[in-house]
DNA sequence: GACACTCTACTCGGATAGTGATTGTCCGAGTCAGAAAGG
DNA sequence: CCTTTCTGACTCGGACAATCACTATCCGAGTAGAGTGTC
């Protein structure tokens, strides 16, 4: 049950975007160069974020990606779901359908208590992720590492040269 | 981030074991036949459960698997960890090590606030799973589906023929 | 009749292929910016 | 000098391989029990 590494990339990239001036698109190549990541593959993750409505993309010169909403309205769950997809971690193949006394009409995803217990855990996980916005994360970083935002912006302007 | 289907198999198999007489080993072939699963592959999952100390295995005739402890002392987290491994879902590759101003001596798994936020969610998930024991699940099933335990035992004795 | 030995059948256990998702890369469609030409 | 057109480079977007984990299977090591021969 390993999460895609794209989630980590997307998290840090979205966080970086919160510090860059709004209304200005940043191309995937520069976002990738920041962490020396393969640009084409990061682009793929950014596409997923764009499809999910987390970032907006503009093609052409001076184009790139930017946050589609204010950081207050982007939760960590939004980012994870954009990359990993909406389906829950536990996969219920309705094993009970193959057991004795199975009713083909029953939806065992709802009836099976194992499935329900796993879903409870899944919801707890999602609740925790949905409770933190990108703005919260940004504020935490600014408090704990005050130099970080400045360094980030400087590095990006340097890449702009 | 799809969980292995072995988790579902392990959950239902362990639950079935709670209803069968204690002190009596059940071979993997019978546990598999209950849900018409591939016996060799379920055996693999049971091996993982045995390595984790959730079930105990005895070879030879009249051998098989049985719960290693009472259901009260087996949490759902124990089963999930046995199959999926102990590492957390979010994979922190310490991206910040590749960013500007990175300190090679810093453990970014602890310092990175993204990593910490994801770990919080992971812990919430684990807490929920650790809060439910196999005995709880068994009791819930017996209350909601009183016929289920009897059906299970009957089916197993039928397979014994 | 009891005991010891052998032999067989049964079980787990790890080593071994097959398959699908994830990872990584590439090139084409579309678009904006800037230069150049004309008024 | 301003406007319009054209060109060109830049960007995303989806289509195309490579790699890895998961899925599935098989056969060998070990064991308990039944059967047989002996005392």
UniProtKB/TrEMBL annotation, chains A, B:
What domain of life is recorded for the organism? Answer: Bacteria
Question: Which residues does UniProt assign to the signal peptide?
Answer: none
Tell me which InterPro entries the record gives: TR_Rrf2-type_CS, Tscrpt_reg_Rrf2, WH-like_DNA-bd_sf, WH_DNA-bd_sf
Any idea which GO molecular function terms this record carries? DNA-binding transcription factor activity
Q: Name one Pfam family in it.
A: Rrf2
List the NCBIfam families hit by this protein, alphabetically.
Answer: rrf2_super (TIGR00738)
Q: Which PANTHER family match?
A: TRANSCRIPTIONAL REGULATOR-RELATED, WINGED HELIX-TURN-HELIX TRANSCRIPTIONAL REGULATOR, RRF2 FAMILY
**Protein name according to UniProt:** Transcriptional regulator
